[in-house]
Automatic annotation (TrEMBL):
Its EC number is 6.3.1.2. SUPFAM superfamilies: Glutamine synthetase, N-terminal domain, Glutamine synthetase/guanido kinase. Residues 107-445 form the GS catalytic domain. Gene3D superfamilies: Glutamine synthetase, N-terminal domain (3.10.20.70), Glutamine synthetase/guanido kinase, catalytic domain (3.30.590.10). InterPro entries: Gln_synt_N, Gln_synt_N_sf, Gln_synth/guanido_kin_cat_dom, Gln_synth_cat_dom, Gln_synth_gly_rich_site, Gln_synth_I. It comes from the Bacteria. Transmembrane segments: none annotated. This is Type I glutamate--ammonia ligase. Keywords: ATP-binding, Ligase, Magnesium, Metal-binding, Nucleotide-binding.
Length: 445
């Protein structure tokens, strides 16, 4: 760590960095930032930077508000969009109390705790997210709703289109920040794009997702458009998911791989899926944390609505992608409910914990779904044992509130704050009179 600190201090001097932004995330997944001068960095490494935690969503109670942000030198990167005028860098922070204890409500610490539990069981957790978002002409909503930048579709090549330049610029910027990109393409909705990050350990991935959202927003501003990670911004068009591929490794060996097994999927892999399925409802208030998230889950267009798994079945909640011959390391499972607006630290902590619980308690994996689950009737789904995901945020909160497993993984303070914050959102949503009601009822009643 000392070597890493020396490297950061040396790089700041060599590159003439003028500002260093210290980044951390609140409980709802909003990025927070405080800028310090180069002269302050050594002190921040040694003692942390003090701030009032009670002013940050869910981070601490008012009577214990003093917190310290400790920059993690391994996350140091210069920010490419700041240019040469005032070179600026960033580091993610771990949050502690004044006596040096990790702050219980720091989302990064929640994930670190879950990863430590996995490490105790001999596992490293790798994740690979496919992040979807919409590009709109502006953030203002016209009479016909948000206006996308194009009307292209899945994998479309749009000569001279905004999305091409946008993705090229975004990918270059991400690579400059040390974030490897695997794919980028136009998605199915008008103005919808997807950029997939290369797999990495879950903590790096969560940091990368927070950086990714900032990069996408910055490039959008630069190009005169607006980027949104809202789960379902356009009625009648697909929502934006963040399908995540996951695998557990024991050293260099993929614990999900077993040669000759069905889909080359080991017993550990099967139990991990069983854990995800059994606890899907309890974790959905975090993996799908907004009222709008449930418009995506229940809006069709390949969003998963039912709790089942399948091999290459895009209607299933958990998918086992096609195995690549002679690539044992590539065996993985894909969780398809997560949306692009989730707090990645909390979501990955819960997805990992659900899978580990399946392994610890040796959950039995139910039979796979071979049919298109959406095309079945309710009676057929019931007969096959496919439960449904929550239909609303309110519904999801009811599951979460009863879950000891979620309370234990998040810690009491984060658990209580998420429930409180999301209940308030649901009440505000429920109290409004919507255009739908006015159109349907005003003249008729």
């Amino acid at each position: 760590m000392d070597k890493q600190r020396d490297f950061v201090l040396r790089t700041i001097e060599e590159r003439g960095v003028k500002f260093i932004r210290l980044w951390f995330t609140d409980v709802t997944g909003t990025l927070k930032s405080v800028a310090i001068a180069p002269a302050e960095v050594e002190g921040a490494f040694a003692e942390g930077l003090g701030f009032d935690g009670s002013a940050i969503e869910g981070l601490t109670r008012t009577y214990e508000s003093d917190l310290l942000a400790h920059p993690d030198p391994t996350t140091f990167q210069t920010l490419p969009w700041r240019g040469e005028i005032d070179p600026t860098a960033r580091m993610f922070c771990d949050i502690t109390t004044p006596d040096g204890q990790p702050a219980v409500a720091d989302p990064r610490n929640v994930l670190k705790r879950a990863l430590a539990k996995a490490a105790d069981a001999g596992f490293t957790f790798y994740t690979h997210p496919e992040i979807e978002f919409y590009l709109l002409k502006s953030s203002t909503v016209g009479p016909n709703g948000p206006e996308p930048v194009d009307s292209a579709g899945y994998f479309d090549n749009v000569p001279g289109g905004t999305a091409h330049d946008f993705r090229r610029r975004s990918v270059r910027m991400l690579e400059d920040l040390g974030i490897s990109v695997e794919f980028s393409h136009h998605e199915a909705g008008p103005g919808q794009n997807e950029i997939d990050l290369r797999y990495a350990d879950a903590l790096s991935t969560a940091d990368n997702i927070m950086t990714f959202r900032t990069v996408i927003k910055e490039v959008a501003i630069e190009q005169g458009v607006y980027a949104t990670f809202m789960p379902k911004p356009l009625s009648g068009h697909p929502g934006s998911g963040m399908h995540t591929h996951m695998s557990l490794f024991e050293g260099d060996v993929n614990a999900f791989y077993e040669e000759g097994a069905q889909y080359q999927l080991s017993k550990v892999g099967r139990q991990f899926i069983a854990g995800l399925l059994r606890h899907a409802n309890e974790i959905s208030a975090v993996t799908n944390q907004f009222v709008n998230s449930y418009k995506r889950l229940w809006g069709g267009d390949e969003a998963p609505s039912f709790i089942c798994w399948g091999h290459n079945n895009r209607s299933a909640l958990v998918r086992v992608p096609m195995y690549k011959p002679n690539k044992g390391g590539s065996t993985r499972v894909e969780y398809r409910a997560l949306d692009s607006a989730a707090n990645p630290y909390l979501a990955y902590a819960l997805m990992l914990a659900a899978g580990l619980k399946g392994i610890e308690e040796e959950y039995e994996l139910p039979a796979e779904a071979e049919d298109n689950v959406w095309s079945l009737s309710d009676a057929e789904r019931r007969a096959l044992g496919y439960g449904s995901l929550p239909a609303s945020l309110d519904h999801a909160l009811e599951y979460m509130e009863e879950s000891e497993f979620v309370a234990e993984t998040l810690g009491e303070q984060v658990f209580n704050y998420v429930l409180l914050n999301k209940r308030r959102e649901w009440q505000e949503y429920r109290a409004q009179v919507t255009p739908f009601e006015l159109q349907k009822n005003l003249e008729m009643l």
